[in-house]
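Weekly sync, protein design subgroup
Attendees: M.S., D.O., the rotation student, P.L. (late)

Item 1: inverse folding check
M.S. brought a backbone from last month's batch and wanted to see whether the design step gives back something sensible before we order anything. D.O. pointed out we never logged the input encoding, so this time it goes straight into the notes. Structure tokens as presented (276 positions):
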């Protein structure tokens, strides 16, 4: 009987996780079943319990359930605690649920592959929501010089920075970014690109050498990345690699084998272009 895994969310129809994980399993000659599970917004815990009762081995968790997943796991990784959210649940033989967060790993891995080392870099993160919270600890572990969390409502950025209480973390509103020293990397962790919009940041932030990253992905560059290019940035990358690398880490946690994420990323990119 195949080991059973799911991705749980609402909505869930758009998820590329089944394609990714079946590619990993094929690479490693593993016999798994991986499907999508649409959970009602008011019964996430019951959906997980039912999945476990049916013999489920692990679950990826996506919007809007990552915070709820943290609450139902009996064991949490350092990354999950720091993120305040869980995107990977592992079901132990005794039924214990272990929660991990691989989003930050996926981001940092993709940044390094595309931009090189993050050591001693000044990093700007746009947005002060869960996506930002999930990547701060992994970014700090890369020995960056500084991270500025910027948000339209600065109080939200201040709250995250105060919570992490790290000497390399700073907060800002969007307007004041024009006064900051040059950044080496800018990461859009807002949902603006989902609406074909861009965060209202000063154009002075963008320069020819800055590396621009958008956590959102699609079959073509996001509005934010197109704007960065128009303002002179040479290096822009979307979040598809983050998706695949975080999935690879989840798979490794479950199966104790590391898949070739780069190969699957190429296949997924091709798949998205064909279906646009």
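Designed sequence read out in the meeting:
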């Amino acid at each position: 009987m195949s080991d059973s895994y799911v991705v749980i969310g609402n909505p869930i129809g758009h998820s590329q996780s089944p394609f990714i994980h079946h590619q990993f399993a094929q690479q490693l000659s593993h016999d798994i079943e991986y499907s999508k599970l649409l959970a009602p917004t008011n019964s996430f815990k019951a959906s997980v319990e039912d999945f476990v009762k049916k013999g489920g081995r692990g679950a990826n968790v996506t919007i809007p359930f990552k915070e709820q997943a943290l609450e139902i796991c009996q064991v949490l990784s350092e990354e999950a605690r720091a993120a305040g959210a869980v995107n990977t649940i592992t079901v132990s033989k005794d039924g214990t649920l272990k929660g991990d967060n691989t989003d930050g790993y996926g981001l940092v891995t993709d940044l390094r592959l595309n931009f090189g080392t993050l050591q001693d870099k000044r990093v700007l993160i746009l947005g002060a929501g869960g996506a930002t919270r999930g990547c701060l600890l992994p970014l700090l572990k890369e020995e960056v010089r500084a991270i500025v969390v910027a948000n339209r409502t600065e109080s939200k950025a201040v709250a995250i920075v105060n919570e992490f209480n790290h000497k390399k973390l700073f907060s800002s509103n969007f307007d004041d970014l024009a006064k900051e020293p040059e950044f080496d990397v800018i990461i859009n962790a807002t949902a603006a690109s989902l609406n074909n919009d861009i965060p209202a940041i000063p154009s002075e932030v963008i320069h020819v050498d800055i590396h621009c990253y958008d956590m959102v992905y699609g079959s073509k560059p996001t509005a934010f990345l197109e704007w960065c290019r128009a303002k002179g940035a040479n290096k822009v990358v979307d979040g598809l690699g983050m998706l695949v690398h975080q999935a690879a880490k989840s798979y490794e946690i479950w199966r104790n084998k590391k898949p070739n994420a780069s190969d699957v990323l190429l296949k997924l990119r091709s798949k998205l272009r064909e279906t646009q």
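Discussion: The first helix runs from residue 17 to 28. The radius of gyration is 19 Å.
Action: P.L. to compare against the previous round before Friday.
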